[in-house]
Amino acid sequence: MDKNRYFERTIQMLERSTKAYKMNRARELKLSAEQFARLKLKADFKDYDIAEIKNRFPNYIDIWGDEQPWYIEDNVEVVKNLFVETLCKLLEHDKTPLDVVYVGNSDYFVSWDDFVKVAESIYYYGGYSGGWQIQLALKVVSDDWWLERREYDGSEWWEFKTSPNRPLKKVATEQEIRCMILGCERYTHRPTCSHSGGECPRKSL
Q1: For residue range 53-110, what is the model confidence (pLDDT) as tens digits?
Q2: Are residues 120 and 138 in the same domain?
Q3: How far apart are CA 183 and CA 194, in angstroms?
Q4: Is the same domain home to 67 and 157?
Q5: Which of 83, 90, 93, 166 is most buried, by the most CB atoms less than 10 A from its CB?
Q6: How many domains does the chain have?
Q7: Residue 97 CB: number of other CB atoms within 10 A?
Q8: Of 184 and 44, which is predicted with more confidence?
Q9: pTM of the shown model
Q10: What 3 state SS string does the chain have?
Q11: Which range (3-17, 74-88, 127-141) has the least confidence?
Q12: Pairing state of beta strands 139-141 and 77-81?
């Protein structure tokens, strides 16, 4: 066999191998997406721990940016699915729906399972559209943490929040309380109101 023929056959084999790899990879990703899509209700998570979910679905965590699975390219626009976006944000912070107490706003609340039934059908444009589409008052709430909506010029997302730790020191005097409220250290560069042993420069406020 001459060299040219040998190289042609080698290239063909590589092309077939690459094509087969891409097809297998596409099937794997599709299967992964289908398996991930089954994780919806609280009962679906009882047999999984966080580490196992992250190992099985590593690309479904928020740190992957615009490659996140809830993004759908639709005429060059970015579309988010609210349910998958919410679940991925929980997983990013080592939480699952088992940790969720309720989903709601300042007036109403529902269970996680009832939220999912509606949220999985909600798709919205995730780019800069000039206005929010998901209510900013919406929250996913647990005992000591919650998710709340954030928005900038129409681009919106979930932000993870935790209850603050109580400081070690408790203030007692009126002067210290005034400092705590007014932030006098901005003027004195000291943690208390004492300004060279004198009175608080904002005492009149």
Answers
A1: 877 766 555 444 444 444 444 444 567 788 988 988 898 889 999 999 999 999 999 9
A2: yes
A3: 12
A4: yes
A5: 90
A6: 3
A7: 22
A8: 44
A9: 0.65
A10: CCHHHHHHHHHHHHHHHHHHHHHHHHHHHHHHHHHHHCCCCHHHHCCCCHHHHHHHCHHHCHHHHHHCCCCEEECCEEEEEHHHHHHHHHHHCCCCHHHCCEEECCCCEECHHHHHHHHCCCEEECCCCCCCCCCCCCEEECCCEEEEEEEECCEEEEEEEECCCCCCCCCCCHHHHHHHHHCCHHHHCCCCCCECCECCCCCCC
A11: 3-17
A12: unpaired
Tokens found for residue 202: 């904002």
Tokens 């060299």 belong to 3
Q: Quote the domain boundaries for residue 28.
A: 1-37
What's the rounded Cα separation, in Å, for the pair 192 and 177?
A: 9
| Six token digits for residue 76 | 């060059």
Phi and psi, residue 191, nearest 5°: -75, -10
